[in-house]
Batch of 2 targets.
Target 1
Amino acid sequence: MFRLSNNLVGILNLVTFLLSLPILGAGIWLSNRANTDCERFLEKPVIALAVFLLVVSVAGLVGACCGVSCLLWLYLLVMFLLIVILFCFTIFAFVVTNEGAGRAVSDRGYKEYRLGDYSNWLQKRVANTKNWNKIKSCLADGMVCTGLAYKSVNDTIEQFYKEHLSAVQSGCCKPSDDCGFTYISPTVWNLTVGTAISSNSDCSLWSNDPKVLCYNCQSCKAGLLDNIKSDWKKVAVCNIVFLIVLIIVYSFGCCAFRNNLRR
């Protein structure tokens, strides 16, 4: 049993160690090549993740294969905390993404989004001006609206209304249907506002400037939250599988730790 549990923990941590090296390399590459706020936002988390995996895998590898009980104990402690954190995050992710969905619009292929439909916690994340300015920079760098403009540049209004737009494209790249603007192209509209829709604050925020569009609109924030909601649900499901794997590895680690003490 000693050879099985200790060797298995050692092999798993060797694989983790090897995986951490390209992640660390990617983080260092980002730090040297980052030109935008979006790229600079990613560099520190990537490097931190790589260093964390590197240190933990070395502790597990040495502790299991060399019989160093203190390192293996530290490895098991980190694994236990990681299991608890992932479990809590998974529950939290399901709770905060339980609210909110796009609203179907008659004779439209896309949906429209309202910020108030989503959980208060998610709303607060995009309500902060500093946070939202960084997000806007990422949206612009991602050329989400530019891609829509090129793809549908020759669409008639009937064709455009049948487009299946993503939540971000619907919220950020065009004005709300409530505004009653006249369609010219997907990202260019004749700014003629009817009296019946003056209550929609997003109408006054729309601009045909490609750098502005509806990036300051509540609908854009709502579209982003809908994307986050969808992604978080997928992550939460993956976390369940990851948790099962971590618990199995943790169990083998406990066996290896007991074996070290017996030796």
Target 2
Amino acid sequence: MMTQRAFFYDVAAPSTSTPLSLVSRKTSSQICNGRNAAAARREQLQHRLISTVITRTMARDRLSEQAREDLDAVRVRLNHQLKLIITPSVTGEAAPTLQKANDCQCDRHTYHPSQGWRRQPHHLSKDQLWDRILEEAHQDATAEPALASNLYSTVLTHHSFESTMAFSLSNKLASPTLVGMQLMRLIQEVYEDDAEVVESCLADLQAVYDRDPACDRYTQAILYFKGFQAVQSYRIAHWLWQKGRKSLALAIQSRMSEVFHVDVHPAAVLGRGIMIDHATGVVIGETAVVGDNVSMLHHVTLGGSGTGRGVRHPTIGHGVLLGAGVTVLGPVTVGAGSKLGAGSVVVSDIPCHSVAVGVPARIIKRDLLKEAVKDMDQCVEFVLDYEI
């Protein structure tokens, strides 16, 4: 400010031939003009700074309004073709939700996983499931006294399934800077606000129990299976992302990656009945869409291609089995009921009910009527002497 004053008075320095009164008027006028110019420069600088911040914020969000509309249109088209689950928060209220896979080659009179999630007769209701979980926890606490304290704090002292899940996830995700009690209240808030999150959690739990032969108790998945825990952590982050609380969503994503070694972007869309077996090294990108009843093993990557603002990641249909180490790159689609062999790299579309293997993946069988996620067999249907 002192420099500006010196500058202004130096500019307005009177000559010896000018009357004093005129000099005073000229000096005052020039000082005023100089201050106005300085203020204008400051406002212009502030405007540029704000514009830069807004631009950077938009770049962080990555998707413009037009790009979002294009993304929604593509997903609606894919949903029509492959019958994927698309949540209303991604495509709007007019978008279709759960639909049958019309291009499915299986018998329509009986249910198949490639038709999307549907509660089966052997599935337990939430109340039945909670009673079963309490019973299993009591049995384990009695059989193994060393685990009694852990089981009482995580299961037996709680009054509901949601309370147990909130406590278990918050203890897993807590860190010195993410306080466990705050996380537990946050997760309870999510469950109270959106019943869909709870229903998806129950479907995931039932999927693990049905498809993982190593899981013979529901408490195993809740307490010890990090694939199930990672998916439920993603669902909390996804809810936050939809509510506009992106910083906290990304913080939970980062913590989830550290704890479970599973990295799922909170903007990705995952359907119901998801099972991630072993889970280590699984990566799912921002614009990826995963349908219902999808099973994947460790080191699966649904990665993006390019730096564009639209869809950059894969779309996976209902009832798809992704073997260990499968990599699917770019905005390709994997049709409902398909199976991808372990270690395959997929860079082009895979039709429904197909078997593909190799680098790059090649289709070796079509019109696969047997549902891949039912038997979880990663060996049959593949040619043993297949040459890459």
